[in-house]
């Protein structure tokens, strides 16, 4: 009985300071290539935290979406977004709309939800003239490098995300919840351990406490898994922070983070978090047609400032189901 043709060997480049880069032989059919290497790419993402595939020649949203669907176990619909996105197709989104000159610091996508994506898929259709890399950082190494006293407090208390929804900054109520029906929003909040309060002007304020450390669902390794630094007011550009504080008040910022017990997080703590992230950052500039597969539990990611047009599509899959945790309870993905 004839044997099936052998799978061509993969050319994987492992260089310090960059995510693993896999050089794919162009076939003209990126979706079929992705289907053939699906298990390999997913294994590499678990092993290394992320893998960038170069050579597929992704050029439009339909092609990227087909690749995403071959790699996914079903594409997820985003809820509780912090910034608006364009939706190209079910589960296929633009990058979050964020000013090009401002960085999006390291974070784990939707780590404040109870159904966070375990795997992220990115496709670069247009690379910017400069900057704009989707950098990554190993969450296990970050946890080990952070001061034990600091991580111990967050493990005991968790972290608190506060949000004030409006139509001017960040995702609107409708964009975040997929509806403007108050009863539907309230049902969602009650079902996802989110405290909420409607404001006299019709706005919504929410508070949700989550764990800061998560065991990886495959390896069992402990990972620093949160958006404590990224969504904290001290990470904002000083002029932006001052403007938003003047406009909304310090207690009603569009988003901010605190210790799980409600105490504010100092600027020095946020600086420590962001410095440790930077010390463990790996980056590779986008090239048009690139694909990137990121383990969202093992790996934090960022978006660096850029100049020129940039179009990077994203999809989310492999939901990690979490439960609302009491202080001191360690989060375990399932």
The major sheet is characterized as: 8 strands, mixed
In the CATH scheme, what's the topology name of the largest domain? Double-stranded beta-helix
Structural class: alpha+beta
Count of β-strands: 21
Q: First CA to last CA: what distance?
A: 42 Å
Could you give the order of the helices and strands?
EEHHEHEEEEEEHHEHHEEEEHEHEEEEEE
Specify the helix fraction band: 25-40%
Oligomer: single chain
Structural shape: globular
Overall structural domain count: 2
Radius of gyration: 20 Å
The mean pLDDT is 92
Pick out the low-confidence regions: 1-7, 326-332
* SS summary, helix count: 9
CATH class of the largest domain: Alpha Beta
Task: Indicate the CATH architecture of the largest domain.
Answer: 4-Layer Sandwich
Q: What is the CATH superfamily classification of the largest domain?
A: Clavaminate synthase-like
Biggest sheet: strand arrangement: 1-2-3-17-7-20-5-4
Explain this structure.
By secondary structure, this protein is α+β, with helices and mostly antiparallel strands. It has two domains: 11-101 and 115-127 and 283-320, Double-stranded beta-helix (4-Layer Sandwich); 142-274, Double-stranded beta-helix (4-Layer Sandwich). It has nine helices and 21 strands. It has helices at residues 30-36, 38-48, 61-71, 139-145, 148-157, 173-177, 182-191, 238-248, 267-279; strands at residues 11-13, 21-23, 50-54, 87-89, 92-94, 104-107, 115-126, 130-131, 136-138, 159-165, 195-198, 204-210, 213-215, 222-224, 255-259, 281-282, 291-295, 299-303, 306-307, 311-321, 331-332. An eight-stranded mixed β-sheet has the order 1-2-3-17-7-20-5-4, with helices on one face. It is globular. 43% of the residues are buried. Mean pLDDT is 92; it is low at 1-7 and 326-332. It comes from Streptomyces paromomycinus (Streptomyces rimosus subsp. paromomycinus). One of its GO terms (biological process) is antibiotic biosynthetic process. One of its GO terms (molecular function) is oxidoreductase activity. Its cofactor is Fe(2+). Keywords: Antibiotic biosynthesis, Iron, Oxidoreductase.
């Amino acid at each position: 009985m004839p044997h099936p043709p052998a799978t061509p060997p993969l050319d994987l480049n492992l260089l310090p300071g960059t995510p693993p880069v896999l050089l794919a032989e162009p076939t003209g059919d990126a979706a079929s290539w992705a289907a053939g290497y699906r298990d390999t790419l997913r294994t590499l993402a678990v092993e290394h935290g992320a893998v960038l595939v170069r050579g597929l020649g992704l050029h439009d949203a339909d092609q990227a979406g087909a690749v995403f669907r071959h790699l996914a176990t079903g594409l997820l619909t985003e809820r509780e977004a912090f910034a608006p996105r364009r939706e190209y197709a079910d589960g296929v989104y633009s990058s979050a709309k964020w000013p090009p000159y401002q960085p999006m610091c390291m974070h784990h996508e939707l780590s404040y939800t109870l159904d966070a994506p375990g795997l992220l898929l990115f496709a670069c259709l247009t690379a910017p003239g400069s900057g704009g890399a989707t950098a990554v950082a190993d969450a296990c190494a970050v946890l080990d490098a952070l001061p034990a006293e600091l991580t111990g407090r967050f493990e005991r208390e968790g972290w608190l995300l506060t949000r004030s929804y409006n139509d001017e900054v960040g995702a609107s109520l409708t964009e975040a919840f997929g509806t403007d029906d108050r009863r539907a929003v309230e049902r969602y909040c009650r079902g996802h351990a989110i405290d909420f309060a409607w404001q006299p002007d019709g706005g919504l304020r929410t508070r949700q406490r989550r764990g800061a450390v998560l065991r990886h669902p495959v390896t069992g390794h402990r990972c620093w898994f949160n958006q404590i630094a990224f969504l904290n007011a001290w990470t904002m550009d000083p002029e932006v922070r001052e403007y938003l504080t003047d406009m909304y008040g310090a207690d009603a910022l569009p988003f901010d983070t605190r210790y799980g017990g409600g105490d504010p997080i100092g600027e020095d703590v946020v600086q420590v978090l962001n410095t440790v992230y930077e010390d463990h950052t790996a980056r590779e500039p986008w090239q048009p047609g690139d694909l990137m597969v990121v383990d969202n539990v093992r790996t934090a990611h960022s978006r660096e400032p850029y100049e020129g047009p940039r179009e990077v599509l994203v999809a989310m899959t492999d939901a990690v189901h979490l439960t609302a945790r009491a202080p001191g309870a360690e989060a375990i993905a399932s």
